[in-house]
Design a protein that fits this description.
By secondary structure, the chain is α+β, with helices and mostly antiparallel strands. It is built from 23 helices and 52 strands.
Length: 899
Amino acid sequence: MKPLYFIDDKGTFTVQQPENISYLYFPLASEAGLKSAVTPNLGGDSKIDQDTFLLEPVSAENLHNNRSCRNFWFAVKNSGVYSAAGVSSGQENQKFSSLQDNSELTAGFMWQSVRRTSRSLQLESTVTSFIPKDCNGEIMYVTVKNLSKEKQALLPYAAIPVYGRSADNIRDHRHVTSLLHRIRTDESGILVCPTMSFDERGHQPNHKIYYVKGCSGKGELPESFYPTTEAFLGEGGSFTHPRAVYEGAPGCPPFTRIDGREAMGAFRFPALILDPGEKASYILMLGIADQEEEIDQLFEKYNTADKTEALLEETKAYWQKKVNVGFHTGDRDFDNYMKWVCFQPFLRRLFGCSFLPHHDYGRGGRGWRDLWQDCLSLLLMDPKDVGMMIEKNFSGVRIDGTNATIIGAGDGNFIADRNGIARVWMDHGLWPQMTTKLYIDQTGDIRILTRQVPYFKDGQARRGTELDTLWTESQGNLQMTGQEQIYTGSILEHLLIQQLTAFYEVGEHNICRLRGADWNDALDMASERGESVAFTCAYAGNLRELAELIRVLADTGSVKTTDLLEELEVLLKDDKELYDNISEKQQVLARFTSLCRHHVSGRRKTFSLLSLAENLEHKAQWLSGHIRKQEWIQAGQGEGWFNSYYDNHGQAVEGILEDQVRMMLTGQVFAIMGKVAEDPQIRSIIKSADHYLYEKEIGGYRLNTDFHELKFDLGRMFGFAYGEKENGAVFSHMAVMYGNALYRRGYAKEGWKVLKSLSDTALDFNTSRIYPGIPEYFRSDGRGMYHYLTGAASWYMLTMVTQVFGVRGEGGDLIIAPKLLAEQFDSQGKASIRISFANKTLDVIFENADRKDYGNYTLASAVCEGRELPVVDNSYGVLSQKTLDSLGDGLHSVTIKLI
């Protein structure tokens, strides 16, 4: 049997002896804000934000260093002590021996259950952890069963160390901040309300209450309490050998108050006697609240076994319903894996890019790219509010084409950077358009381009090269006109400014400047002379696609013109001689950013939509030709690839240097995706990537070859060990985008190789050592790293839905153009996908009786509910918006016959 296996078709999985694998952790969260990580031994942490941690913050290394974890103890009369978390000194001592507990972890979306059996004590326990969807309390549901043939007398203890303050205080006044604790017990648990939030930059009064409550499954309350770490551990005791449990210390009664100590949510329940085979249960609730009444109400809702079990089922159903995309292929494990990939964007929405053990950086929230890329998956699963989200997100764009980098809670909440000149990522203008195009394709809402949105304004000026000394915080964060009126522009105008300013901001090779970095944050040491060929390719693709959108806009309405900010005209020159001239392009950009340095005129000029489209197409064509001519590296044996970057000495980064091959994946991805690479070049890129970057055993395509150099004229990534993170690891996000680009250009077999390599490695638990899903990267030995919170999940899902199964929107119609390979059909020659589109739930079933490969079959027919659908060129079916509107509620099937 595999060490990790799925037990249903909902993604639920089981792992045997999970505590024998290092660095495992599982995410739990609610919609209300509480976020937890829990390990097989119930380690991890729990928090609402950076300043509000219930349990002590942990990084990956703390997972095996710390023993101050959630725990539930049983002192067994005349036999010994048992930890349901497996974290007693005796259980630790027996680990990896024949006396080690048998353990089994089972988990699904937002819940984890660990069953543990003690051979020596003849006890079986389960601890099920979850967070109800709408509250800031984590539930631990504990059961214990007597496996012996004799009665057993047990004394149960709950033990939850309460940290109760900011993560900053781990190394900043840890002891001093414990002096702020005001701890008290009541009839059902322990409450901790620090007097203040300690910060020497400015202390703030605290009103948060950190608590641990408990009862038996029958509603029985604790009888004795240990509200401090010292009281529970005892002098010289430890979290694996607490003297309160081992020696039966009496504890204190309810309504005891203790000030200025490290807090402990520990208490003892009345003794119980279990007959052979008899079972007992306990419920712990640990959380954070603003009012004590809130805690009491919550406890009343969950204070019996029946209530807790019902709540668990409700939680499971809630998150299962969220993931409304399902796949059926010839590989059941892969189909379940996709459940987790589709769930990961929800985790990123809740956790941001912080607050899991590997993600021990930042202070929560999401970055600019995250705002847009997380919308990709929402458009495929829960699109109803995405249009409004997109509109609000565009209000983070500055008038000079850069964007806010500090993002507040909620949609459209952007905060000024007050720390001098901010870092500029040159790729940030790319992602809003990609998301907007998908939105238009899925919904047909081309008019979104005409909606008016303000621009963000702060002290950053001229694309982050100067400070606007005229701006003050009192003026607010919206771009104003010279008449002190808020200026708004169409979303089309926002997109034009983002693409065109990038087009003109070039370095000495007439390639877009790298600035602070691009998608690869670790290319952060070439801000003066660095250039990104990779994302210049991407902007070429964006210019081309924006031209197509403008043509669609012109075709769908009576209006053939658009009004744009007068200052924008300087960026709309259409002159090949200008494009060839680096200094003149730089002057154009300087003139534009000077015109809108503080205020804008607010005056608008009218432009023909078709002329705008033609203008952008010319720029895209020029970029593509320039890159093909200047950046292509021709190697032997039919190999070749594009140079991706120039370093801070102005030197091309890639090529063959003294028999050493230097190749990066990023430049190839966007050359293919942006239609810069022509078919012969794509074939050469594939051959080169397979030769120099591909290693199946560790997930597939590495981000780069080994440069054998500390290349500090390009970025910090070259200081990392090769095969780790951005320096040559299999970086899932870029690998998935490589697969997506190949599919877009018709290379399905090669694209599937990319996706399959990633999934095979993730599902090979002996190699990846992670729960199902796609991690940020696979390191040099194949272990998955930085699990769950990666944009790769959205792109993987997007590729599977819109490219592999070929189910995608086009102007509001549903296009079905499969690129499935023979191996992706089951033994009956069937594959299917369940999706939500235009508020309809559809099962799209593909029948391939002869199990032909993509390229060898044609689309013979498409039928929806007995109704024949149009089939175009025997290659794709069309389910029109009109037909979709005519369908009722419920599930509808579409059958595609391939011959």
